[in-house]
Amino acid sequence: KLTSLPLQPVITPELVQGRVHLKCSYSPHSLEPPVQFRVLWSRLSSPGQRQQIHQETTSLPFSHLEMDGANLRLGDTVFCTVAAFRRGSPEQQSLPEDSKGFYAGIKFLPESLEIAEDGKEHVLTILSTVPIACPGQDNSCKIALQLSTEDLGKSSQVPGPPDITLSACQVDLLPDSCSGSSCAAAMVTVTAVTDFVQDGNRVSRVRAQPVAPRDLLWRDYTPSDVKVTVQDLPTGNCYSFTDPHIITFDGWRYDSHKVGTFLLCGSESRVFQVHIRQWDCGGHRSATACNCGVAAQ
């Protein structure tokens, strides 16, 4: 019976003669031929609304549709709807089945980040759900993405400098075999800026813009950005003052009366040190040292 037929349509991307196509595959193995399939392609035009792109009738267990940059563009969420019927009896068809929506374009994983001002690096993966084509004969088989950050601040505040920093300003998406939802991927690390300012939790965003792509499909395409929420943390402080009285990050207090150059503080996780220089300022009356110089790396 056609009414309870499990077609299970699935959309996958592939390159056909160097051009990006979407392939809608379905499972007709439970049917005896001759069977025809009516395939309807549509794209999400607005939330909850679909726009029909293409319709065809075929006896094949799949249907192709090219991403031509006009009817079907990067940034579209695409569906295919399939129904089956016996040849010569198009009015007696199975219930149409929808595929899951396939998003064609750039994705960020995770789709949003919540990090803290603790100096830790967080990996952000940038992937393309469609294969990277090679429009020329030279070394042009890549999509270069220019990365930028922007502070969105709070509704009551004027945006300021971004609260995040990236490990790279540009990444390249290189051709790879499609696996899962990824046909090409690159990684960048995101770190919250320790700004020594109690400015509350702020929201920044990371944007990726294709740089002068040769492939027409990638022109005029701006991927959706990813929002990064930065949790504001109180900044630790340490002190060395006068003849030097020292207060450590955890509040311990002591005095140092030695003359020389010393390591005041250093990080075990990154290249960061503060050196202090102390000289004799007590003369013959007392052995007292005072701060006379500081150097930070």
From TrEMBL:
Statement: the UniProt record of this protein carries the keyword Disulfide bond: yes
Keywords, ordered alphabetically: Disulfide bond, Signal
Protein origin, superkingdom: Eukaryota
Residue ranges of every copy of the VWFD domain listed in the record: 236-297
InterPro entries: Dev_Signal_Modulators, Ig_VWDE, VWF_type-D
Gene Ontology cellular component list: cell surface; extracellular region
Protein name, as recorded: VWDE protein
Organism expressing this protein natively: Cinclus mexicanus (American dipper)
